[in-house]
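Human: If only I could read backbone structure tokens as easily as an amino acid sequence. Take your time, and here it is.
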Amino acid sequence: MEIWSVGWSEAASRRESVARCLSLDGESTTDLPKPVVNVTGGHDEAIGAVHVHIASEAHQQQALAHVGLVEWIVLSFEDWSMIPVENVVAAAQGSPTKVAAVVNTPQSIAGAAFALDTGVDAVAVSPTTRLLDAAEAMRASRLERDEERTVPEPTQARSALSTSTVTEVTSFGLGDRVCVDLAGLLAPGEGMLVGSTAAMMALVHGETVPSAFVPTRPFRVNAGAVHQYALLPDGSTCYLSELSPGDEVLIIDAEGNTRPLHVGRLKVERRPLISVLFSNQKGQEGRVLLQNAETVRVVDARGTPVSVTALETGMRLISRSDATGRHVGQPIESEVTEH
């Protein structure tokens, strides 16, 4: 993490830790011993930096729109808030864009330095002894943390479809469940990856299997309780309650073949639920809460749809595990524990 000085002072000139000088208001920055980031007017084209002053949700969206397009996004704040920092840090992970935050208290320096357990790439502070000391302390803490742990690359952290063993099947009582009705037809074997945690998901089969009592709904996945995650085509997740008509979800079969389909509508109704606990060979445990009905099916290790009402302990299911954490659905390089 770099330390930037907002303007210059004698205190800053004595610090080898200060990497750059940040100019926000067009003050003279000539003859300084440090590189200058001059974002007067919002941009510094020389280093590909853009300055966004966060005063509303619209400004956060403006900052997010620059991710991947510039080298640096410099955030300043009307009133300091961690949420915009976290959201921009999450969006910038895996992109060439770095994030700098203008902060003016030791507490906000610490918050920015460890946002989402990853932190910004630079903190910019007024060049006072108090703030420079705080920034150096947080920089040292970041270096110590990075030495203590090895963060896996995203391509290593995510795994493909695998199998898990059912460890418990119990009634869960009433809850609101979501039928995801798609603007396209599902083939036999296809469904959605759904789970109570983003780390472990089960393949829930579409309603393409004939039943003696109800007709097939080959456009539908009865995806279960509203709080659950669904996997999206870009690798992010969202809660079932957040899906809207026009959104794309990831459709997948037991072989791992995928395609996106648009949501046509969501049908939320109160129904009895069944809880299915399952774990993989590494001991990761997941849960899926589905409507307690014979027309709702998961996919077993052979690729065969199995009704949730027929599930028993010891059966093996198609699942997906993911060791990365999530923030607002985006994978992040941070440890997140869900139960």
